[in-house]
Amino acid sequence: MNKNLLMSFEEYSKIKHETPYFYIVRSNEQILYYFGTQHSIDPNHPQFNLLKQKWNEFLNEAKAKKTLVLVERNIKDDKQNTLEESISKYGESGAGMYFAFENSSEFKNPEPKIEEIVTFLLKNYSKEEILYFYESIAINHWQKNKIQQNINEFLSKNNEKYKKLLDWANLKISFDLLKEIHKKIFGQELDINDQSFFSQVTNPVTIKSRINELSRSQSIYRNEYILGQIEKYWSNSYNIFVVYGASHAVMQRPAIESLIV
């Protein structure tokens, strides 16, 4: 695989693509199906009918040879009773997990450990910036899914995790702390009701702040790592079914297609 073919964000920003975004890579002996999704925990989202259809086509083409499902979320073996329950709990990654368990396929998350990502980010970004990035993702999730939990309770559940990751002995995650960090970075007050802001501030495509730059940096790091994992499993003769966000599918495609060049 030629990882240098990974699409840059500058290139990605100039194209339009469908979501879901799907493609197949085939050699004489192996297949790779890549299903790029819209992140959703709604079992009624129409993409899940198409995902199930492509999975069945993958199984038929793989002909019972060893198969592997790769998903974006790091889910420990947690098989739900139904596909719908799995999607409601884990989104499209839950669907991938459910398919794998139902068909005795191997199931993995090909991401670097968060400890590795944070160590990488600390080379160029402060602890406060890194915490703000991850908690902005959490707030966006809280907003979009209308989670019925106090924002401070919701944010504080990961306090020990980030205290350890960032080596931040007296860390106490709260919305007040995020407001302080926000004021330092942006020079203005933080509005918890501004859903568009929390969607945009972690967007790696459009650079408007240090947090967008951080998001882009960690996304490139992740993409390169994921490509390495795909190459490893391909070289070990797996037939691979990937369920990831559509932007990853698009940006990784040129490199993945080089597996068979």
Mean pLDDT: 94
Overall geometry comes to globular
- What is the CATH topology descriptor of the largest domain? Protein-Tyrosine Phosphatase, Chain A
The number of helical segments is: 11
Number of domains: 2
Please list the strands of the largest sheet in the order they lie side by side: 1-2-5-3-4
The CATH class designation of the largest domain is: Alpha Beta
The helix content is 40-55%
For this structure, the quaternary state is single chain
* Spans of at least 5 consecutive residues with low confidence: none
Sheet-strand content, in percent, reads 5-15%
Largest sheet: 5 strands, mixed
- Content-based structural category: alpha/beta
Run of helices and strands: HEEHEHEHHHHHHHEH
Structural description of this entry:
- It is a single chain.
- The protein has 261 residues and is of the alpha/beta class.
- The chain folds into two domains: 3-111 and 220-260, Alpha-Beta Complex (Protein-Tyrosine Phosphatase, Chain A); 114-217, no CATH class.
- It has helices at residues 9-12, 47-62, 83-102, 114-121, 127-144, 151-156, 159-165, 175-186, 195-200, 210-235, 246-257, and strands at 21-26, 31-37, 67-71, 106-108, 239-245.
- Strands 1-2-5-3-4 form a five-stranded mixed beta sheet, sandwiched between helices.
- Helix 10 (210-235) packs across helix 11.
- The longest helix is centred in the last third of the chain and has 26 residues, at 210-235.
- The model has no long low-confidence stretch (mean pLDDT 94).
